[in-house]
């Protein structure tokens, strides 16, 4: 069997396991066709004392943080947070983002400035979370912290608890 055929079959098995596991756990959620995103308010400036580090990949030397003061869960069931990425060379990237667990999508709302203000993204749209190098921090947050398959955290406190206590991704329903 060719490696392409093996990848296709493997992907189909992962998808089937996701659907059957989610259904048996009562977690299969259809994306709501009438879903509307709620109002989005920019979070406060990043505060060093509120940064919570999280593991992304042993392949990256960067450090990844979420500002716990920015974590929220809207009535639209979107988990919003400020992501801080620090490189070994000292550069820092700050973005305000959202994850929609029900659809496995992410969105970047704004980029943070050194003075604590925000610059809205010009092309801010919902996009699928893929597990590539650029999106790995979002995949880690979605599948190892905030989302249990398509289920969002219950509330802000639950989201913070999930951020502080990552789940084993091999036992998650998240498909990568």
UniProtKB/TrEMBL annotation:
Residues 31-164 form the CNP1-like uncharacterised domain. Keywords: Signal. Residues 1-25 form the signal peptide. This is CNP1-like uncharacterized domain-containing protein. It comes from Thauera humireducens.
